[in-house]
Amino acid sequence: MKLKLDLHDIYNKGSEIDRALRGVIEEAVRKKATQVEIIPGKGSGQLKKKVLRFLEQKEIKALYHRMDKDAKNHGRLFVYFRW
Question: Helix-strand-coil percent breakdown of the chain, rounded to 5?
Answer without folding.
Answer: 40, 20, 35
